[in-house]
Amino acid sequence: MISTPRKTPLLPISAILAMALVACARKEDTKPAQDMNAPAPPGASAPSPSASAAVAASAAPAASAPAARNDLNVILISIDCLRADMPWAGYPRAIAPRLTEFASRAVDYTHAYSLSSYTSMSVGGILSGRLPGELKRDGYFFGTYAKENLFFPEVLQDAKVFTLAAHAHGYFKKAGLEQGFDSWEVVPDLKWNNTTDENVTSPQLEAIAERQLADPRTDSGRFFAWFHFLDPHDKYMPHDGIEWGKTLRDRYDGEITFTDRYVGKLLDFIASRPWGPRTAIIITADHGEAFGEHKQFVHGFELWENLVRVPLLVSIPGAAARKIDTPRSAVDLAPTIVDLLGVAPPESLLGKSLAPEVRGAPEGPRDILIDLPATSDNDRKRAFLHGNLKVIASGESDVPQVFDIQEDPGELTPIRGTDASKEIVALYKERQKTIHDVPPFKCKEGCLNGGYRKK
Ligand SMILES: [Zn+2]
Fold first, then answer.
1. I need a surface site. Which of 151, 237, 400, 417 has the fewest CB within 10 A?
2. pLDDT at residue 398, rounded to an integer
3. Residues 74-103: what's their mean pLDDT?
């Protein structure tokens, strides 16, 4: 089902890497018709201010918020392609019992957004606390990041926080994302396929995570750990004893169930360690996944809600579980993590720490920016959310599309010519002036905007 590249010229390694998951994300893929009928995403609606207030009022902790403690560790668990429509958000299948249980005792952000719609740009944004287009990168789809970028683990490392990470895709070996990590491992012996990812890696990744977390340095001082699970990425592989059906969504659900077991195993390990009770855990995704929405499958290339709405679960010791419906962005992860570790945030961070509101402080509205910089394989797109309205701008387009994601969660009918739509476009253009776009240092004219693919 996945078309192979039309042409495979000799390419720099970064471009070849780009092809690896590019192909899996190309939008012209065709899939069996029945998959067009993937379950509608429950909980895909925009936040309702009244509902938000009701939830906040009923679930908010008592006025005495827990005091911030100064001995916390932080573990970030990200799951590739994890959509927002998961069981704890109303999806009618128990595909992720461990994550659902975790959500019930965490602060559950019901309207969280990733920074982009595919791994390379999203994780660059998470690590820098900035938009990916503001980073020094080579411009290939699977971007390599320059040393000059400041990633928050570097700041942690300078502050003597032990930093460790484990990954499950070859891209992570040499993408420049390892900056600031004392320990950085990628699951060994991965099979390479430049059109999809057939590796099953959660068991190995979880084992590496346990080994890394058993490092004596986690007992003797504070640490930050990041583990990125990859199995929900296509190709959706079968797993013994897990059978949700035969459609693409069914098979994806099987990957979620499989991954959930290993995330659960890791959560059990964390709970068993002496430092478990003083460890904050954040679970999120780098982006969502498409199952026929806007005739697209997998991810990348676009910024539709199903691609950029992601789960965000934050568990801080002492903080009461609740749901927060106010939209938030992955740009807030870096400030949250440095805050929890008691390290002064670098000035470069765009977002704000979520820690105060997770501990019960009132949360105010913030606009959301999502950025898909032009690369060798895609044109530039940006999205901007303000209240219930969302702007999607392609390239340098002066006529961005506006959607009311509360009334029209499927983003099917753009709003034109209303005062509200003009206002949000004006607001977006103002906001855009504050974005410090950085041109890529390798893939330039004739390569960008999918130029490489068009050759
Ligand atoms: Zn990804």
1. 417
2. 67
3. 98
In the reported structure, the alpha carbon of residue 117 is separated from the centroid of ligand 1 by a whole-number distance in angstroms of 8
- Helix or strand (DSSP H, E) at 295: none
Contact 108, 327 (CB under 8 A): no
Q: Find the 296 Cα to ligand 1 centroid distance in Å.
A: 16
Other C-beta atoms lying within 10 Å of the C-beta of residue 238: 11
118 Cα to the center of ligand 1, angstroms: 5
CA of 228 to the centre of ligand 1 (A): 9
Report the separation in Å between the CA atom of 81 and the middle of ligand 1, taken as the mean of its atom positions. 6
Question: Using 50, 70 and 90 to split pLDDT, how confident is the model at 264?
Answer: very high
- How far is it, in rounded angstroms, from Cα 150 to Cα 127? 8
pLDDT at 444 (0 to 100) = 84
State in Å: Cα 68 to ligand 1 middle: 32
Ligand 1 centroid to 53 CA: how many Å? Answer: 33
* Confidence at 452, pLDDT banded by 50, 70, 90: low
Query: Cα(119) to centroid of ligand 1, in Å?
Result: 4
pLDDT computed for residue 170 by the predictor: 92
Mind listing the pLDDT tens digit for each residue in 7-60?
233 333 344 333 434 334 443 333 333 333 333 333 344 444 333 433 333 344
User: Residue 236: phi, psi to the nearest 5?
Assistant: -80, 100
Give the three-state DSSP class for 224. strand
Split at pLDDT 50, 70, 90, the class of 455 is low
Structure tokens at 368: 């959301």
Q: How far is CA 296 from CA 28, 29, 35, 307, in A?
A: 7, 7, 11, 10
pTM over 0.85? The answer is yes
Distance 84 CA to ligand 1 centre (A): 14
Q: Is the pLDDT of residue 166 over 70?
A: yes
Q: What is the largest CA-CA distance in the chain?
A: 62
- Dihedral Cα 52, 57, 63, 64, nearest 10 deg: -70
The pLDDT assigned to 328 comes to 98
Distance 123 CA to ligand 1 centre (A): 8
Cα-to-centroid distance, 432 and ligand 1 (Å): 25
Question: Per-residue DSSP letters for 374-415?
Answer: -BTTB--EEEEEETTEEEEEETT-SS-EEEETTT-TT--S--
Q: Which residue has the higher pLDDT, 13 or 277?
A: 277
C-alpha 287 to ligand 1 mean position (Å): 6
416 C-alpha to center of ligand 1: Å?
A: 33
* 86 Cα: distance to centroid of ligand 1 (angstroms): 17
pLDDT of residue 265: 98
Residue 395 C-alpha to ligand 1 middle, in angstroms?
22
